[in-house]
Sequence to fold (881 residues):
Amino acid sequence: MLYGEVTIIEGLKNRVNLGLDISDDKYNNFYGSNTPFRDGKLNSAQIKNSDNFSYTLENLLTYDKEFGMHRLNVTAMGSIQESTTISSRMDASNVPVNYLQYYNFSRAEDVFAPENDNNYTAWALASVMARVNYVYDDRYMLTVTGRADGSSRLAAGNKWHSYPALAVGWNIMNESFLRDVSAISNLKLRLGYGQTSNTAINPYSTLGGLSGSFYNFGDAGVRGYYVSSLPNFDLSWEFTNTINAGLDFGFLKGRITGSVDAYMQGTNNILLQKELPASQGVPGAYYENVGKTENRGLELILNGVVISPSSKDGFAWELNTNLFLNREKIVELQDPSITRDVGNGWFVGYPSSAIYDYVKLGIWQLDEADEAALYGAKPGDIKLEDFAGGGVNGDEPDGVITADDRRVLGSAQPDFQGGFTSTFRYKGFDLSVVTYFRVGGMIVSALHMPTDYVNRLAGRHNGIKVDYWTPDNPTNDMPQPNATIDASRTHVLGYFDGTFFKIRSINLGYDLNSKHLAFLGGNSSLRIFTSISDPFIFFSPYVKAGGVDPEPNAVNHETISGGEGVPQRALKIKLDTPPTRRIVLGVNFKF
Amino acid sequence: MKRIAYLALVLVFTSISSCTDFLEEEPKSLLTAKYLETPSGVWSALYSTYSDLRYFYGGESALSMTVAGTDEFQKGPDGSEELNLYSNSGLLTNGQVSSTWNWGYTAINSANAVLEYAHSSGMPEEDADLCVAEAKYLRALWYFLLVQMYGDLPLNLEFITEPSTEAYRTPAAEVYQAIVTDLKEAIDDLPNIAPQPGRATAAAAHHLLAKVYLAKATHATAKEDDDYQNAFNHSTHLIDNAGAYGLALLKDFADVHTPRNEHSSEILFTVERNTDIVSDIQDLCLIISI
Fold:
């Protein structure tokens, strides 16, 4: 990062920022024939290189001016950003002797350049922005921003998108009518409207492309090319309109402070891939600006000094709380006429993390054996609800559990969440308790799905402790242990209410009075502290069902194997990252 | 110092004003459809049209899709048995049903690219005529396969350059007309004897056209009075002129099916397989014989 700044006239400054990023990756390997990677097949070698060069250049012009009651700040910015990646890869097999490894491909029997990893990829962004910030008498604030962004990734003619932003603030506290009200120490109202945008697609997505195929006429090999993706001449920016309103407040000389914020966001022209009818003859999907989503939210922060210390060493108690909620929903899909896209797990009116699956009614019991048999099940199996597929409109039971018998069961979105932090101080001691809670939302526990071996209750290893069905234990919780259970319909066992209240951490510390350390010099200090993280979890249906920690550890991680139903965006609890509890003891000594 | 700042200012703002270039994409490692407008691009589109035949004739699709459940063929090593058992569950999700449709249209689009660009690409005129004739033969072959299996279907005779999410079915009678037209035009420019094994010939086109007339003759809406006569004409033409086409019946009928004898004089058209492949079964070319 380099910069230069110069004052042109008083109040007018010009600053140039230059950021550079250069990286060079090499990934070469050799696998011998008798290694697990090749398992007796021919040895293989690979040479892979990837170089990236990117830079950002920004030019900022700022002007500050105060005259009387007016304060003005003007900023103009122009910036460009460019990134170029060149990668290459060669694969070889049947290297005559192992010690050649990847050092001499000319000696390998077969050398070829694979379709992947041989790329030149460049993208560029350009922006111009102007912002005027005006304050009158520390009471009225106005910020007007105009901005235009250009992206190389979008179609010619649609590369630029310009958008405004407007923010107003009213510092009510500084009005004359409040100046004498001692109960209020801060009061400020904020309103804003703005737009943000997104161009996150792969470079060259609008150009279309060819894929290769091979053929031979007798012994003569030939290469063919066919159109595998079509160009899009209209692709444009995805953008989000945001309106927000907020109030900052402080009462009783700052003993109670906080803020309330409400926002509404609408995202339009979402960059999504769309499949073409196969009869177009082009197998690849293409990008389109389609769909709409909406987000609405409320955030509340409240801080209070419950007990204010009477002296420096007196007892003090501060409480900080926050509460927030967000409502996301899909307003429109690829095509306004469709309301659901089961393949992607998108449903109009529901969050994008919606969970769409069968409905578990319980477990088939012994006295329901005849009814269970109609569904190809037996007592001890999972009893799923059959509500669709039959009747004239397909909305009546049809006596088979089919893919139609699935519905939206919930989503990752909680009703609301928040936390409290309580801090106590007395003499040299300080104690803080941090809590966090979530109400509602659905979590997906891979542990409870027999797709993972831990809950198949088979084999000679430990499983998780669950209430499973036996003829003597007619529970409706978990099915009879079955090593060969059909995993495609057992996700339903892993859906839990995500509610919990958690003590995030307890921290206790003691600062030794510095006068006892005076003999070590002026600035000495000694602090002894201990903390424990995640010690208690309350009100969690998931913990009651044998889970350890209801907070997900696998968002956007690999999908759970064995069938549809669980979207990528779900809050997942898996085995790969176990929950931890940490206790720390420490001494901080300075002299 | 000031001068440097002004210079930087000028630099940044001029670079932004010339942004049209700055934001232009140059796909240096990608082939786009532009390539198909060149002579080598036309050839590559033609080769790709040939190559896609393997998706049908290379695996078991050709047998499963046409004669499964008969005494000719039941099921093979790929294990799919939905078509063989006439099971009602599989049609929509059956890989052979979708792959035949999907790759059929991909091949047709490649053939359309050849027809669109061959003559404007700058390739020698006789090459362009040959490419066009082969592409028409292959397009007719694909449409003939598809119309027999799927009935009315979208008839694309133009190269597709822009995405469209709409597709309409054309009546089978019109599809048959298009097939007949393609084959008649192909016959004129196709060579009697293939320059390389596996390339389309006039003999293959006569034979295919005879089959098309036979299929058409029994089709409820496509049939015409002279279909049988036309089938007879093309068949007898081929039989009577076998010598001119380098064709002759083998002495021993069984030799037609002898492995590695796919390029014998009794063979009209083959879908080629690379002989490098280890397994002998995959080695077999699929044969359309007299």
Observations:
- Chain B has one domain: 38-289.
